[in-house]
Amino acid sequence: MSSVLNTVFCSRVYIGNHSYCNNHLRLPPHSVSTPPLTRRRLTVRAADTDTNEVKSKAPDKAPAGGGSSFNQLLGIKGAAQETNKWKIRLQLTKPVTWPPLVWGVVCGAAASGNFHWNLEDVAKSILCMLMSGPCLTGYTQTLNDWYDREIDAINEPYRPIPSGAISENEVISQIWLLLLGGLGIAGILDVWAGHDTPTLFYLALGGSLLSYIYSAPPLKLKQNGWIGNFALGASYISLPWWAGQALFGTLTPDIIVLTLLYSIAGLGIAIVNDFKSIEGDKALGLQSLPVAFGAETAKWICVGAIDITQLSVAGYLLGAGKPYYALALLALIIPQVVFQFQYFLKDPVKYDVKYQASAQPFLVLGLLVTALASSH
């Protein structure tokens, strides 16, 4: 789970005689997004760059070495080029981004206090994970690639959509199939859980809108560092948690507030991946926090969002009369701070992978501790 909350892919931006690796978190919110009604509305505009100059320098083929078949199946950078349509479809859904949503469902089920290790509850949880991960996360990832297709045609023309490895009709049909499949599963779960109000369906539908406006113009939330990163954090932490808890119990206002607070930590995690793409983001007009505030200020905003959020949650648990859970969460925060000083604050570009691999497992375990505390 070392990278469950952060998945990175790289697009290379060419500026003059220099190239920059836009290794930037570009994951849309992963509950689901609402696609446009017609293909004409599914359009995206490339950033204001000199297209002819950039395209002449863009690579026509994947990087030397052919890429990795394993990376292709996971949907991450360094992927091999593939002709098998099913493998290409899987690549567009980026399976490496599914685990955060699956973990969120686990936390929500734990927080409900009503999950039992019997066949029915296990089957419900697996179906909820299928809705949150492969269907709705896969949907939003495919949609995001669709809206980035013109930019990818300049920077990475060998990617599945701009290279023509999969047709526009096939991409659009995949978007609709995954969306309707996810919403359909949400409806089934509501009936299975005996809900008078289709809570899970409404959550999926709300997440759909959030995901859509994250990727699609004119709002395109991911262009704004504050709003986009918080939407990303909420989609990874709050929405799947709410789905898991609503499936097995009752989604209460205090849990909604608590998980939204935790989503601020998700905002901080998203910022970690903004540092490598500062030059590219400037060229594309993306206002990531390192671009807006400078790298030195942004790295302190990043660790502040992560640490202060968790300390606030620990304080909440202590005030709620759950000192042991609060101490457990505090024990999980300490190593994160140590790794921040050891790696991230020294050089957020050089040590970002080491920091994420070292610190994030403790944050993920802290989520489960908070969920378990909420169930008692």
Describe this structure in words.
This is Chlorophyll synthase. It is found in: Membrane. Keywords: Chlorophyll biosynthesis, Membrane, Transmembrane, Transmembrane helix. The chain has helices at 51-57, 69-74, 85-93, 99-112, 119-147, 149-155, 160-163, 168-193, 199-215, 225-248, 253-272, 278-284, 289-293, 295-319, 323-344, 352-374, and strands at 9-15, 18-24. Helix content is 65%, strand content 4%. It has 376 residues and is mostly helical. It has 16 helices and 2 strands. The two termini are 25 Å apart. It has a two-stranded antiparallel ribbon.
How would you summarize the topology of this molecule?
Layout: E1 9-15, E2 18-24, H1 51-57, H2 69-74, H3 85-93, H4 99-112, H5 119-147, H6 149-155, H7 160-163, H8 168-193, H9 199-215, H10 225-248, H11 253-272, H12 278-284, H13 289-293, H14 295-319, H15 323-344, H16 352-374
Antiparallel strand pairs: 1-2
